[in-house]
Design goal:
The chain is globular, with a radius of gyration of 17 Å. The two termini are about 20 Å apart. With about 200 residues, it is α/β, with parallel strands linked by helices. It folds into two domains: about 140 residues, Rossmann fold (3-Layer(aba) Sandwich), CATH 3.40.50; about 45 residues. It is built from seven helices and four strands. Helix 4 links the parallel strand 3 and strand 4.
């Protein structure tokens, strides 16, 4: 996780999840949700997020039962609503296999969040990477012409330039308040890009 916040009432957070075809826990929808929830709950100054996680824990008989995917989705949305802004980086979405039981639900969940945001839902932005040629992913995102930016990259220099340019845009200006966090965002994205 890479995060920066301005205090609980105006907190913003950047969350990161890397899909990995070699690790089944990094291909599951529940694994994605658990990771994002955990990252938000670790915000040391953000009591509201920890309270929502505590409620989930108690609703599962103090950890005796595992939460359902629906409970995890609800918990994610409830925690996001406690932040001023949430940016989610989903790296290598294509490494969640097309025939897996998670890929389609993940895509449907992302698009459900887009629909809710447009009707006054919580502020959340996604930065999603995937190899080209993934027809299901491409077709879903092609339906969001006004909401997407598409970039093909061929080298590490291109990736670095893209990340740097994106972080200069207005929606990421808050990262300039913490050069350490900004540099961590850049280095993490560069490291995880693996010269794709």
């Amino acid at each position: 996780m890479v995060s920066a916040s301005t205090g609980p009432s105006g907190a913003r957070v950047v969350l990161y999840f890397f899909f990995d075809f070699q690790d089944s826990s990094k291909q599951s929808f529940d694994g994605l949700l658990r990771s994002l929830i955990q990252q938000m709950s670790f915000e040391s100054e953000h009591y509201e997020a920890r309270k929502v996680v505590s409620d989930l824990f108690h609703s599962c008989k103090s950890g005796t039962n595992q939460p359902s995917t629906e409970k995890l989705k609800d918990t994610f949305v409830r925690i996001v609503a406690t932040f001023e802004g949430v940016h989610v980086v989903l790296d290598a979405l294509d490494e969640c296999p097309p025939g897996s039981p998670s890929r389609r639900p993940i895509l449907e969940w992302i698009f459900g969040l887009f629909a809710n945001e447009r009707s006054s839902g919580p502020f959340i932005k996604f930065f999603i990477t995937s190899r080209s040629g993934q027809s299901d992913i491409e077709s879903r995102f092609n339906s969001l012409q006004a909401y997407k930016q598409r970039l093909s990259v061929d080298s590490r220099d291109d990736i670095h330039k893209f990340v740097h340019d994106r972080l200069e845009q207005e929606e990421f200006k808050w990262l300039h308040e913490s050069p350490e966090t900004r540099n961590k965002v850049i280095s993490t994205l560069m490291e995880r890009s693996g010269n794709m």
